[in-house]
Design goal:
The complex is a heterodimer.
Chain A: H1 5-11, E1 36-48, E2 53-56, E3 59-64, E4 69-75, E5 77-81, E6 84-86, E7 89-91, E8 94-98, E9 101-107, E10 110-114, E11 117-129, E12 137-138, E13 141-142, E14 155-166, E15 169-178, E16 192-204, E17 216-228, E18 232-233, E19 236-237, E20 243-255, E21 259-273, E22 281-294
Chain B: H1 2-14, E1 24-33, H2 38-45, E2 54-60, E3 65-70, H3 78-87, E4 91-101, E5 112-114, H4 123-131
Antiparallel strand pairs in B: 1-3, 1-4, 2-3, 2-5
The chains are: A mainly beta, B alpha+beta.
Chain lengths: 302, 132
């Protein structure tokens, strides 16, 4: 039950911060300026014990409504399967489809722009809408969140993000909370508190040219810490759910004026999971492509 | 010796007249605060079409400079440049505006990019012109 599909759908909304290359494994520092649209496509397969396999394809979109206010959406889709013991052997239930649709607004409360760096502190708040499925059953039994794509409720989501970006180095941090209330059928995947950090260095070109804007290669090291409350299944708290997870990711990125592409590996360092016999993540991978767009031009100029 | 003098005189006579001065253009060089990556320049780029007459932009990451070349005869308003930079979310620094000879070419490797101007009649067409 570690590495739940639902958690992926939350986490994966991997999007990035303003003015620089940005974190891939968390969404809150996604950079977006006024009249700008950012679209990020992700592919995130991950593999766990008990043959729990998850393939997620989240798409994240950011729009700069004003210079300080950004609006974001995360559209999740994917599928997961796991081995399950059944009379006569092992079965492999699989579920997939669209997950919950997330929206949030981020406001730049404080910023310091200098010639060689920028600092921003940005609170955010929003909601996940129950567009995913939370009724998947196998052999008549409601499955846990690892095989569900949605929480079944409108989930408040809020937090704060901060970033300091310089020409060679970047750091981004956030702390967010998603409240997952009980559904009418007493299902809940458990609320989630998470803290993320990122350190990134542009390592290519080794010597930046005096003129111009070169294609840059970046190495991003990202940490994700989750504290998950226990699930509710059919009205009872599931003892084999919830816990603490700490993951570290190393991601290579290539950045240009209009796009960014990258890939990396995600390793679990700590999996302190409640209960017994839980499925634990072994390894995860991340691939992404991001394209920057101008917003529609409603009025003709010139 | 006489022949040499005559040849020199002929050469002077047939030499092309001095080329007329190149077209002069207005060039604005703006210092930027907060732009630390390509994405920062992109944030400004997508708004540059709002500046009347700007044709080329040059991005210098190390020095945090953006250079804007306007079409010949275009009047340049520093306040409008500041508004575009601020609208993209950055704090503009000093801006110098000078008349310079129009360059014969603009080298992309040196950071020059042609500014895409949306001219289509409908909004969808204009959006494509700016982005693709």
């Amino acid at each position: 039950m570690t590495l739940p599909l639902l958690r992926h759908l939350l986490v994966i909304t991997a999007l990035p911060g303003i003015a620089t290359a940005s974190a891939v494994t968390f969404v809150t520092s996604l950079p977006v300026a006024q009249d700008q649209i950012i679209v990020r496509f992700n592919l995130q397969p991950s593999f766990s014990t008990k043959q729990l396999r998850s393939y997620q394809f989240p798409v994240s979109v950011g729009y700069g409504l004003t210079a300080k206010l950004g609006l974001f959406a995360s559209i999740s889709q994917g599928f997961a399967s796991v081995d399950a013991a059944v009379p006569g052997g092992i079965a492999r239930p699989l579920n997939g489809g669209f997950g919950d649709l997330g929206f949030y607004a981020r406001y730049t409360l404080f910023k310091v722009d200098k010639p060689n760096s920028t600092l921003r502190i940005t609170p955010l708040a929003g909601m996940y809408l129950p567009t995913g499925d939370n009724t998947f059953t196998f052999q008549g039994k409601l499955q846990g969140k690892s095989l569900q794509t949605g929480s079944g409720t409108a989930d408040p989501y809020f937090g704060i993000a901060a970033g300091w970006n310089a020409k060679r180095f970047t750091t981004n941090f956030d702390v967010t909370y998603r409240l997952n209330p009980l559904t009418g059928t007493n299902f809940s995947p458990g609320s989630e508190l998470r803290a993320d950090g990122q350190a990134e260095v542009k390592f290519w070109p080794i010597r930046m040219p005096e003129e111009g804007l070169p294609l840059t290669a970046n190495l991003s090291l990202e940490s994700n810490y989750y504290v998950n409350a226990k699930d509710h299944l059919a009205g009872t708290i599931s003892p084999n759910s919830g816990g603490k997870v700490f993951r570290e990711s190393a991601i290579l990125q290539l950045s240009s004026l209009r796009w960014q592409v990258g890939g990396g590996i995600q390793m679990p360092f700590l999996q302190d999971l409640n209960g017994t016999g839980r499925s634990k993540q072994k390894l995860g991978y991340i691939l992404f492509f991001e394209y920057y767009l101008a917003a529609p031009v409603w009025r003709k100029h010139g | 010796m006489v022949r040499a003098v005559l040849l020199m005189a002929l050469a002077v006579c047939v030499a092309p007249a001095e080329a007329p001065a190149a077209d002069s253009i207005s060039r604005a060089v703006a210092h930027l605060n907060g732009v630390t990556s390509a994405r920062g320049f992109f944030n400004i780029t997508v708004r540059l079409y709002q500046l009347e007459g700007v044709e080329w932009a040059k991005y210098d990451l190390v020095r945090s400079l953006i250079t804007l070349d306007f079409k010949p005869g275009q009047a340049v308003d520093e306040k409008e440049i500041r508004a575009v930079i601020a609208g993209a979310g950055y704090k503009p620094g000093p801006i110098a505006i000078n008349a310079v000879p129009k360059p014969e070419n603009y080298d992309h490797k040196l950071g020059w990019n042609k500014i895409r101007r949306p001219t289509a009649k409908n909004a969808v067409g204009r959006w494509f012109q700016v982005n693709f």
